[in-house]
Amino acid sequence: MTISFGTFSKLTAGFLFAAVVVSCNNKEQAKTNSPSTSASASKAAEPIVFVNSDSLVNNYNYFKDIKGKLQSKSKKAQEDLSAKGTAFQREVAEYQQKAQTLSADERASTEQRLARKQQELQAFNQNASSALANESAGENEKLYDKVAEYLKVYAKDKGYKMVLTYSKSNPSLLFADESLDVTNEVVKGLNDQYTKDKK
């Protein structure tokens, strides 16, 4: 028996939000920039940009921390389950060796006890899996909220009307000019914010 807990793949999949739409009544974008401005300045003139969510989750320190925490809990639960399973198998083997020497009542009593232990082991497995799945879902929601809240402020500051997301596993965005990719800038901002929050 092993805990069927996908190593945080649910979190990554759940994070691939379809789009974070930001209505910005920010009309102050009529700043006079010369045509030879930097790429970031030209991006600011665009109402729509995108973020590569694969790259974002792989480089966002908050995601790395919660991923590590959940993987650690999953490993601990699997170790506990393995230890309990080994002990149970040892008891079953001992019973099988002595079964012929036991009375009918002793055999029935031992088999009932072993059946209860097996049920407890299955319940432990299910409870551990459920607890990890629930915690993963909770962390996924926090992750989404953190990114969405940051992007609302970021988009308003930059004058963007919409921030789309792209992922190889869910390529709803088939093509976009690289000048519209603000992933690195967003990751840096998120990590700066996370560092401040930790302090």
TrEMBL record:
One of its GO terms (molecular function) is unfolded protein binding. Residues 107-134 form a coiled coil. One of its GO terms (cellular component) is cytosol. The keyword Coiled coil applies. SUPFAM superfamilies: OmpH-like. One of its GO terms (biological process) is protein stabilization. It comes from the Bacteria. Residues 1-18 form the signal peptide. InterPro entries: Chaperone_Skp (IPR005632), Skp_dom_sf (IPR024930). Pfam families: OmpH. The keyword Coiled coil applies. Keywords: Coiled coil, Signal. PANTHER family: CHAPERONE PROTEIN SKP. Belongs to the Skp family. This is Outer membrane protein H. The lineage of its organism: Bacteria, Pseudomonadati, Bacteroidota, Sphingobacteriia, Sphingobacteriales.
